[in-house]
Amino acid sequence: MIAAQRLNENPQMIVFGIVSNGAIWQFGKLKADTFTRNITLYSIQELDKFFAAVNYIFQQCEVQLDEKIACQILN
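and the corresponding structure tokens:
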């Protein structure tokens, strides 16, 4: 996540991360120097909750991209 943040050259852009050991999935985000980990553990045994979390991450990424595009158009 730190590498992605540095490649973006924008530490204020939130970088989302998803990790899994094959049974358990975890989600987190990095903004500037603050890392936040979702304490909820997800498994494929509860696909509705897992997919809701993944969908949320994708929605937040889309919001950020839309904001970045809007700023570039205005500048």
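(Above: one complete record from the training split.) The chain has a mean pLDDT of 91.
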